[in-house]
Amino acid sequence: MTSWLKEDSKANARVVEVFTSHRNACQAEEKWLLHQIDAAYQEISHLRARILEVGKTPRTIPTPRFRVQR
After folding, report:
1. Which are the contacts of 48, defined by CB distance < 8 A and separation ≥ 6?
2. What is the number of other CB atoms lying within 10 angstroms of the CB of residue 24?
3. Which element (helix H / strand E) includes 67?
């Protein structure tokens, strides 16, 4: 009985390790994606400013339809 409990405990530890690894990978990907979104918003802002410098009106520049909530 005790050997069965030890094996079960080891299996549970492996499952926890797999889920923890998966969660960490998902969190890292989420962080990277948020960084990419921020970089894209900065680039959009820069490009809008450049368009205004050239003489276009802001009404001709489409605005984003959504904003990422954190």
Report:
1. 58, 61
2. 10
3. none
d(CA 7, CA 5): 5
For 3, counting Cβ atoms within 10 Å of its Cβ (0-12 exposed, 13-18 middle, 19+ buried), the class is: exposed
Six-digit token string for 42: 């900065």
Note whether 63 and 45 are within 8 A (CB): no
The answer to whether the beta carbons of residues 61 and 48 sit under 8 Å apart is yes
Q: Which residues contact 34 (CB under 8 A, 6 or more apart)?
A: 68, 70
pLDDT digit string (tens) for 4-50?
Answer: 888 888 999 999 999 999 999 999 999 999 999 999 999 999 998 88
Q: Which distant-in-sequence residues (6+ apart) come within 8 Å of 41 by Cβ? A: 64
